[in-house]
Amino acid sequence: MKLGRLNHVGVATPSIERSLETYRTLFGAEPHGEPFDLPAQGVRVCFVDAPNSQIELIEPLGADSPIARFLEKNAEGGQHHVCFEAEDIDEARAHFEGKGVRILGPTRIGAHGTPIFFLHPKDMGGVLTEIMETPKH
Ligand SMILES: CC[C@@H](C(=O)O)C(=O)SCCNC(=O)CCNC(=O)[C@H](O)C(C)(C)COP(=O)(O)OP(=O)(O)OC[C@H]1O[C@@H](n2cnc3c(N)ncnc32)[C@H](O)[C@@H]1OP(=O)(O)O
Ligand SMILES: [Co+2]
Asked: Is ipTM beyond 0.90?
C-alpha cells in the first residue's frame, strides 16, 4: 500500500473559537464552515483550509472524549494526529493488520463522511495516525 494524500492534521484544542481566532489573526484564515459536533467520536470539529490540506481543530465533547487525556497533559492543546487517505478502507485495514500494527477500535465514519480508523502512535514512531477513505466526489 502506498502513502496516500495528507488529508488533514488534527489539532486538539480546549477552545475551537480561540484557535480560530489565532488562525484568523495570524494567517487571515477563515473556518471551512461552522464548527459541528460528532458525538460518536466525542469531539466538536472545525476545519481550516490550507492550499494542500486542512487543519482539523478538535475540542472534547465531554470527560470521556478520546482527546480529554491529551488535553490534561497539554492544557493549551497541540498537534494530535495526522490523517492519510486510502482508496479502499477495508484493504488498508487488512494491510495494517497483516503488518501487526495495532488498530484503535473499529472502522467508523469520520468528519468527512467517509470511513476512518486509527493506528496506535506506539507503532507509528509516536505519531497517532488516522487512515481515511478518499471521498468520492
Ligand atoms: C473528527 C473526527 C475524526 C476525523 O474524522 O478526523 C477524528 O480525527 S477524531 C480524533 C480523536 N479520536 C481519537 O484520537 C481516536 C483514537 N485515539 C485513541 O484511541 C486514544 O486517544 C489513544 C491514542 C489510544 C490514547 O489513549 P489515551 O487513553 O487517551 O491516552 P494515554 O495517555 O493512555 O496514551 C497512551 C500512550 O499514547 C501516547 N499518546 C496518546 N495520545 C497521543 C497522540 N495524540 N500522539 C502521540 N502519542 C499519543 C501517550 O503519551 C501514552 O504514551 P506513554 O505515556 O509513553 O505511555
Ligand atoms: Co482526524
From this structure: yes
